[in-house]
Amino acid sequence: MTPLSLFYPVSPHTVTRGWGVEDELYAEFGFKKHNGVDLALSVGQEIRAPFDCTVTLVGNHPKGSGLFVCVLSNAQYDFPDGARTRVELSFMHLSGTPVRKGMRLGVGAVLAYGGSTGKSTGPHVHIAPKRVKKGLLGYRDYDRNDANNTFDPTAYWNGAYATLS
Ligand SMILES: [Zn+2]
User: Fold this and answer.
1) Is the pTM of this model over 0.90?
2) Cα of 102 to ligand 1 centre, how many Å?
């Protein structure tokens, strides 16, 4: 059994909006609930890998997520509901990133710098966690819900900050 364990990617760990909050502003993106957690930070602040992962996408949606980085866990994790999946994390509203697609990152590696790009009212990082399983055409969402198939990461933070070992 390998439970998911996430290190805090920014210090201090201050949640400014939790997962699952209903808000009409998500309707334009096709879902009802906040599909992640928002953490406070300052522009340029380092955001560090919360688990061992591989960068799967670096992109920019100026009207939505802004500059974003997606990473996929190297390990599969066992969840309380019996699921065994990998986890994809998308980090949004970034000001910059030192990573490129395909890079492997250990816990604590800098994956991005905080910002307020895209649809954002102030500096923060939005982290959207998804459970994903490998299918015929690559990884697909394991969950189906009105929070864009994400899950609440709150129970999986391990209480320590991500630092290079
Ligand atoms: Zn958010």
Assistant:
1) yes
2) 25
